[in-house]
Amino acid sequence: MGLVLITGAFGFIGTNLSAWLARRGHRLLALDVVRRSGTPYAAAHTWDELDNLPWDSLGAVVHLAGKAHDTRQAAEPQAYFDVNVGLTRRVFDRYLASRAGAFILFSSVKAVADRVARPPLTEDVEPAPGTPYGQSKLEAETYLRSRPGASGRALYVLRPCMVHGPGNKGNLNLLWSAVRRGMPYPLGAFPCLRSMTAIENLCVVVERLIGGGVAPGTYNVCDDDPVDVVTVVSLMAECLGRRPRVLRVNPRLVRLGAALGDRLHLPLNTERLAKLTEPYVVSNERLRHALGLSHLPVAAEEGLRRTFRSFVEDHRR
Asked: Is the confidence at residue 72, as pLDDT, over 60?
């Protein structure tokens, strides 16, 4: 079993993935902006050491490093390309010059579409990202496919939906904070289904790709079933031992408030409202077929329960 290099190793996904792989006997190398002690890695490296890594001994490269989507819309557009494309070029070019095994690029469903007009979203949809984040992710994907020498290598592009689990950050945490404080959920008039990804399912997918025998390609990654946001609120309340509080505020008033948030850079803006209310259903059929699975190990609602239980434990510490 060769070494596995994980870039962006100390972020949310990297932390969970490395712990998962280490428990299963994989030897790991970390690459991030800083070194950290007390990690499950055989060694940790910074970006200025990229060329000195034992590339020919790597069984797989998992490229997680990147700039996350900024829902406050405060980031400069070029910053996404500098990081999401620039780092991918550096890592992939060095990979191609080596005898390393699989290369797994973490992209995003937002590299394809910000909204799903005809659900479910599949890998065959013509990409049309509408934000610098999605555009930079798509450009990184394109770079992999365009490089001489890429043909014949074990290349995987993963497009996960929103990933959740211990240490999760982002919109799910904002919703959790409101429910924990006893605030009613005011968007019950926006029924919608959303595809999400339990971190356990993502870890299973990556380990299978590292193990070999899976056809190279581009794969959506999400739980088998989408979940309504009102159900998400109910699961949060369940884990807190409370009854869910759901209001059905007039959608027009909510949209006006979100538009005001755009101007004043408030927590609720039109993009965040869309993330919470617009349906975004994704198909993982191609992935399950490639892995030979009828379903992923963790059901959608159970994965959310595990995430929210971890939130409760974190709050108690």
From this structure: no
Task: From 54, 66, 61, select the one nearest 107 (Cα to Cα).
Answer: 66
In 3D, which of 192, 227, 198, 195 has the Cα closest to residue 120? 195
C-alpha separations of 72 from 21, 66, 261, 263 in Å: 33, 17, 9, 11
8 Å CB contact between 25 and 4: no
- Residue 160 has φ and ψ, to the nearest 5°, of -75, 150
Residues across the chain: 317
Give the chain's mean pLDDT: 93
Residue 180 lies in a domain: no
Q: Assess whether pLDDT exceeds 60 at residue 74.
A: no
- CATH of residue 293's domain is 3.40.50.720
pTM, entire model: 0.92
- pLDDT tops 70 at residue 102: yes
Domain of residue 73, residue span: 3-167+196-224+281-300
pLDDT of 5: 98
Can you tell me the distance from the alpha carbon of 26 to that of 23, in angstroms, rounded to the nearest whole number?
7
Which three-class secondary structure state does DSSP give residue 51?
A: helix
**The pLDDT value given to residue 296:** 98
Instruction: Pull the structure tokens for residue 157.
Output: 């592009």
Instruction: Please report how the helices 229-239 and 300-316 are oriented relative to each other, as an axis angle in degrees rounded to 10.
Output: 40
Kindly tell me the burial class for residue 145, based on how many C-beta atoms sit within 10 Å of its own C-beta (0-12, 13-18, 19 or more).
exposed
Count how many domains the chain has: 1
Picking from 210, 105, 108, 84, the residue whose alpha carbon sits closest to that of residue 163 is 108
The answer to whether residues 107 and 158 touch, using CB atoms and an 8 Å cutoff, is: yes
Closest by Cα among 50, 63, 147 to 105: 63
Residue 248 lies in a domain: no
| 125-135 per-position pLDDT tens digit | 999 999 999 99
Q: What is the mean pLDDT of residues 209-220?
A: 96
Rg, C-alpha atoms of the chain:
20
